[in-house]
Write a structure and sequence with these properties.
Layout lengths: L8 E7 L3 H15 L7 E7 L4 H10 L5 E6 L5 H10 L5 E4 L5 E2 L3 H9 L5 E9 L5 E5 L5 H7 L12 E3 H6 L6 H5 L3 H11 L4 E12 L2 H6 L3 H16 L5 H16 L2 H10 L6
Parallel strand pairs: 1-2, 1-4, 2-3, 6-9
Antiparallel strand pairs: 4-8, 5-9, 6-7, 6-8
Helix pairs in contact: 1-2, 10-11
Length: 279
């Protein structure tokens, strides 16, 4: 690996064959390239076969020497795709981004300033918008380290698509944990908790850094058996890593399981009106 400047950074963007990602992909990549500080490397991990038109869009970006495309023959899931991307990263810092989200113009500048202050894990707020661009909600997360530690015992303390981290710290804890055998759908939450346990200093900017694609159906879908199983695995993970008492994990699991079982329409209303801000 060649040595790059202290503030060098990559953007890690996994994609897979989904129509809404294909339709927003070019805007997502351009929102990185047009930022006030341009990434040294953009890693696009293509997780399995994608439709021809989508593949053509990816290949068009490969002519840019800042962009590295990793083509996976079969779909291996988000955790595997992320770890494949980390394996080819050549910079000190890695910023996460999604193929259907738009990074605010100054996102990287804001977070690089925080990283330069000694933080190893940095996130921020997101604005959730529907396909027409209308604002649905704003999702904020705790900003100071101690609040992040407490919040992380019950809910994921970072918006994944906003996170930036020191790559060496993530490699020391083994990258994103295996979602199937370990933490279900909580690969990002588990990684943040491992980093916090290792002593990584964390913060979130209160500034909105990403406009995230969303719709009311997305909130309603956040339930069912898969979510319950994932939550069980995540609570077990926290207990096994001595970050949470088993009795508290059991209480939190039962409360969340009940939430995941309520009618989807009611769950969507709660997400919008209780678990999100309006501005």
């Amino acid at each position: 690996m060649r040595d790059l400047p202290l503030g060098s950074f990559s953007v890690l963007m996994p994609i897979y064959d989904r129509e809404d990602i294909a339709s927003t992909f070019e805007d997502a990549v351009n929102s990185c390239l047009q930022n006030t500080i341009v990434p040294d490397q953009i890693i696009i991990v293509v997780d399995g076969p994608i439709r021809d038109g989508f593949a053509s869009k990816v290949k068009a970006f490969e002519s840019n020497d800042r962009i590295t495309a990793v083509w996976l023959e079969k779909n291996i899931g988000i955790t595997g795709a992320l770890n494949q991307g980390l394996a080819v990263a050549k910079t000190k810092y890695v910023f996460r981004a999604d193929g259907d989200d738009i990074n605010r113009l100054n996102r990287f500048e804001v977070q690089l300033k925080l990283l330069s202050q000694g933080f190893g894990l940095v996130g921020g707020a997101i604005c959730e918008r529907d396909r027409e661009g209308s604002i649905l909600a704003v999702k904020r997360v705790p900003t100071d380290h101690e609040s992040i530690l407490r919040y992380g015992l019950r809910r994921c303390p970072f918006n994944h698509m906003t996170v930036a981290f020191d790559l060496s710290d993530v490699r020391k804890v083994g990258g994103y944990p295996d979602t199937i055998s370990n933490v279900g759908l909580g690969e990002d939450w588990a990684l943040w908790m491992l980093l916090l346990k290792s002593g990584c200093k964390a913060t979130n900017s209160d500034e909105i850094l990403v406009d995230a694609s969303a719709d009311i159906e997305m909130y309603r879908r956040r339930g069912g058996v898969d979510k319950i199983e994932s939550e069980f695995r995540m609570q077990r993970f926290l207990v096994e890593h001595s970050q949470k008492k088993i009795w508290l994990a059991a209480l939190d699991f039962m409360a969340k399981a009940a939430f995941f079982l309520i009618p989807s329409t009611i769950r969507g209303i709660i997400y919008i009106n209780v678990l999100r801000d309006k501005s």
